Amino acid sequence: MQDSEALTLIPGPLTAEAFAPFGDVVPIANDERRNHFRFAFEAASEAREPALWVSYPSKVAGDVVEVLKLERHPHAAQTFIPIRDGRYLVVVCHAAADGSPDLSTLRALVAESNQGVTYRRNVWHHGLTVLDQRTRFAVVTTLSGDGDDDCFYELPKPVRIRLSAADTGA
């Protein structure tokens, strides 16, 4: 595949406003006693099993991240809460009328280590990609228990995220 066939995005900073169509950003402030994740348990009636795990992405991204597939969760929202310092990449888009990713709505955003995110159910997103160092995340969702909680979509052409050109607001 030639480079000219790939869509290239330059990420911006993750803000509540930029992410609002896809979910919720929760600032994780050290001076707060409690942080609420508004959409963390948004779920359809099929999702009956609360789930919590720790994810530890093993690969730290370079200057370019190549996105080859996206995922979504039809029954429930999915929340990521960073446990260690380190920025991470958030790549999201809406679904088209046929349910596939609508790449015209694709956004790339850089999250700081003091920001958690909740993807609303059915929002297409890329898997966790850490930028500075290996970082642990607590992941919260609700599962149906029927094996249909994850949908994956192989993109027809790669999407390249150019981190070296990013305006992260940092």
Report what the structure shows:
There is one protein chain. This protein has one helix and 13 strands, in the order E-E-H-E-E-E-E-E-E-E-E-E-E-E. With 170 residues, it is mostly beta strands. The strands form three sheets. Strands 2, 7, 8, 10 and 11 form a five-stranded mixed beta sheet that branches. A five-stranded antiparallel beta sheet has the order 3-9-6-12-4, with no helix packed on it. A three-stranded mixed beta sheet has the order 1-13-5, with no helix packed on it. It has a single domain, classed as Jelly Rolls, CATH 2.60.120. The radius of gyration is 16 Å and the shape is globular.
Low-confidence stretches: none
* Total individual domains: 1
Mind telling me the CATH class?
Answer: Mainly Beta
Shape verdict: globular
Helix content: under 10%
The CATH homologous superfamily is named Ureidoglycolate hydrolase
Please name the CATH topology. Answer: Jelly Rolls
Secondary structure: number of strands: 13
Instruction: Name the structural class.
Output: mainly beta
Task: Write down the Rg.
Answer: 16 Å
> Per CATH, which architecture?
Sandwich
What is the chain-wise order of helices and strands?
Answer: EEHEEEEEEEEEEE
Fraction in beta strands:
35-45%
Overall pLDDT: 88
Number of helices: 1
Largest sheet, strands/sense/barrel? 5 strands, mixed
Report the span from N to C terminus: 34 Å
